[in-house]
Design a protein that fits this description.
Elements: E1 3-7, E2 13-17, H1 22-30, E3 39-42, H2 48-59, E4 63-66, E5 72-75, E6 83-84, H3 86-91, H4 99-106, E7 108-112, H5 125-133, E8 137-141, E9 144-148, E10 156-158, H6 164-175, E11 180-184, H7 190-201, E12 205-207, E13 214-217, E14 225-228, H8 233-245, E15 249-253, H9 261-270, E16 274-277, E17 280-283, E18 294-295, H10 307-314, E19 319-324, H11 333-340, E20 344-348, E21 351-356, E22 364-366, H12 370-382, E23 386-390, H13 393-396, H14 402-408, E24 412-416
Helix pairs in contact: 1-2, 1-7, 4-6, 5-6, 6-7, 8-10, 8-12, 10-12, 11-12
Bound molecules: uridine-diphosphate-2(N-acetylglucosaminyl) butyric acid.
Amino acid sequence: MDKIRIRGGRPLEGSIAVSGAKNAALPDLAAALLTDQPLVLRNVPQVRDVITMTRLLEHLGARTSVDREGMCHVQVSRMSEPEAPYDLVRTMRASVLVLGPLVARTGWARVSLPGGCAIGERPIDLHLDALSRMGADVELVHGYVTARSRRLRGADITFATRTVTGTENLMMAATLAEGRTVLRHCAMEPEIVDLAALLTAMGAHITGAGTETIQIEGVDSLHGATHGVIPDRVEAGTFLIAGAISRGRVEVTECDPGHLAALVDVLERCGVPLTTGPGRMEAGPWESLGAHDIVTSTYPGFATDLQAQYMALMTQASGAAVITENIFENRFMHAGELRRMGADITLEGRTAIVRGPTKLSGAPLMATDLRASASLILAALAADGESTINRVYHIDRGYERIEEKLRALGAEIERMH
Ligand code: EPU
């Protein structure tokens, strides 16, 4: 199993381009199931989750190809059995994104129910309730969800909790439904706006994506389209924090600074000098780094996907930072590993208190989930001596060529096979 070895203590310097957003590419790929015509997606990151989604689409009958520039062609001219098997769904919860498009296109779908995962319970009850409201017969048998409906009907649906993939699943299902669907209390993440742009290019009628109410007027069929995936805001944020934690100067290009307002606000309050321009952001070396509290919430609040990385940064800040995780109940697995490096972190339910600054020392570490692995890499960059990070397959799920990009900024980092 691959490991990453890092020798810390060097300030990172330089400029790095971010990749396309994993969490936009996944629903965009699932949207290919809504038409028999070809979809061409630009800026698709070559990360493990994207490969898993392409495998799943191929299992469902798609022909796919990707070139080195991240240009991806997908076409599902003829569907195979509309079934997402356990082995694929087990490795990636976002596989559930095929449920809505499959029912909409073929009238039925059988998708393995994703279990809990390292960051919490993560049910999909809201996806299922909403599909039932659109007239689907939803059953759970032998660990699989089966949903059937000759044609979905438009409905007025209010999500009890804002859910990103739930909003995306239902938005896709509603594009081919009969009549109008109104989705209320929707998630407002940029990835949802990206998916709506793609669906619109495919001939869907959608308004309100990016606000809490989305309206979709169903159409009889969708067609092919070409679409560019938005930049990965979590990757961009991770590199800005890498600049800050190493006391270097890191410029992030090909990003959308507008998607990172909450992080920028907090980093500036901590004392990290930031500059932004069209498509670029830069974190410069700080004079003094102060602790600042954060509470994760849905967009435009502070992203849960940047909480672990921010926790690593706070080990270097003066004072106590209270970090409250409001989205997932078990997303502090990195805290124990950071403590093994010398961090002073106390956990109380959904809250972590980080007291700093502490000197971190390199250690053998275990990655537990995607963003936790990013946090360990950041801490290792700031630590004295050498760290080895095990189970790096977690990081490969969502960061494209991370060690190559960090090496280009001057990090001493290598992958060991
Ligand atoms: N929830 C329910 N029932 C549902 C759906 C969600 O109770 O049917 C709860 C969840 O348990 C959670 C909250 O609602 O407490 C929000 O979950 P959401 O559904 O928004 O999460 P998701 O769609 O499964 C996406 C991202 C995650 C990101 C979250 C929150 C994708 C593919 N995944 O997950 O990304 O953390 O939104 O922003 O878009 C990552 O990239 O590392 C990652 C985990």
